[in-house]
Amino acid sequence: MTTRPTVRIAATGVLLVAVATGVTVALLGAWSSALPDPVATHWGTGGSADGFASVGAMVWAVVITGVLGLALAVWSALTSTPSLARTLLATTVGTVAFIDALLLASIAAQRGLTEATGVAFSGWWFVIAAAAALALAALAALLVPTWRAPWQAAGVRAEAMPLAAGENVVWAVPATSGSAGSVAAILGVALVLIVALVSRMWWLLALAAVLALVMAALLSIRVAVGPGGLTVTGRLGWPRVHIPAEEITAVATEQVSAFRQFGGWGYRVGIAGSLKGARGFVLHSGEGIVVTTRSGRREVVVVNGAGQGAALLEAYRERAAAR
């Protein structure tokens, strides 16, 4: 198969997530009359219940988790390689299954009780949840077919933009994450918030805040080429990478596959192909500027109009080398 089976992958994920969510909601509804109100939802380090919520709140938590799972399942169908699609789909389905199974195991232990305060935590709940997660994750991975994804070509050496003696030109453009990356970032923060609210593990709120700040800094950058070289700055002023023109030995452009070559979005290290070992800002797939420094280090930044930026940077590199 040479064409990505997008519909099949999405349908597989949607079906598995929907089944897990539907079964969990159905069982919670069927058990509701035999459960205490509220039910225990969190246990302290000593194994005693210290967090409680209504069955209705649990149903909403399951539904919201399911909706996020459905979105991630559809998103996994848009990836470029079979291995990545399997990994993302299996992780999504397995996570939803783990959360649902853990919740059901803890709720099942409270059936027939009038008070939930005496329910002790059991390690078997995690065993049951892990088994359910592994089973559904494995099934999801097995149902993703193999297809042959095209490989990106190697880089092309940039030709210097003609500049008059003493002429200085600045090229500055923004680069933002693609829609899939933005959705993944939002869903990731949302999932941490849901887990924090359901489990009452309030330290997770701080984790969600840190994740939100990091993602805000990395989902949008400014790429600038000037007489001083190449500068890439995050939206919040961090991170910032500057490579002086006199330190550059080669400038090229190359088509970059975010997942296949870098394993995702953000400030990444190349894991495959001609850019293996290179570092840089890969907010989406597309054409990027690839810079090699005197130390042999390679930096890459994917940005629209990379050819123009690379040509100008090559002109400044040649000017610096001629001094």
Structure description:
- The protein is of the alpha+beta class and 323 residues long.
- The chain folds into three domains: 6-142; 156-177 and 220-322, Roll (PH-domain like), CATH 2.30.29.30; 178-218.
- It is 48% helix and 20% strand.
- The chain has helices at residues 6-31, 55-76, 82-108, 123-142, 179-199, 203-218, 258-262, 306-322; strands spanning 39-43, 49-53, 156-157, 171-176, 220-226, 229-234, 240-244, 248-256, 266-269, 279-282, 286-293, 298-302.
- A six-stranded mixed beta sheet has the order 3-8-11-12-10-9. Strands 4-5-6-7 form a four-stranded antiparallel beta sheet.
- A hairpin with a 4-residue loop joins strand 11 and strand 12 (298-302).
- 34% of the residues are buried.
- The model has no long low-confidence stretch (mean pLDDT 88).
- The chain crosses the membrane at residues 52-75, 87-109, 124-147, 168-196, 202-225.
Low-confidence stretches: none
Alpha carbon gyration radius: 25 Å
Shape: elongated
Amino- and carboxy-terminal Cα gap: 54 Å
Write down how many β-strands occur, each being a DSSP E stretch of 2 or more residues.
Answer: 12
* Percent of residues in beta strands: 15-25%
Order of helix and strand elements from N to C terminus:
HEEHHHEEHHEEEEHEEEEH
How many helices? The count is 8
Structural class: alpha+beta
Keywords: Membrane, Transmembrane, Transmembrane helix
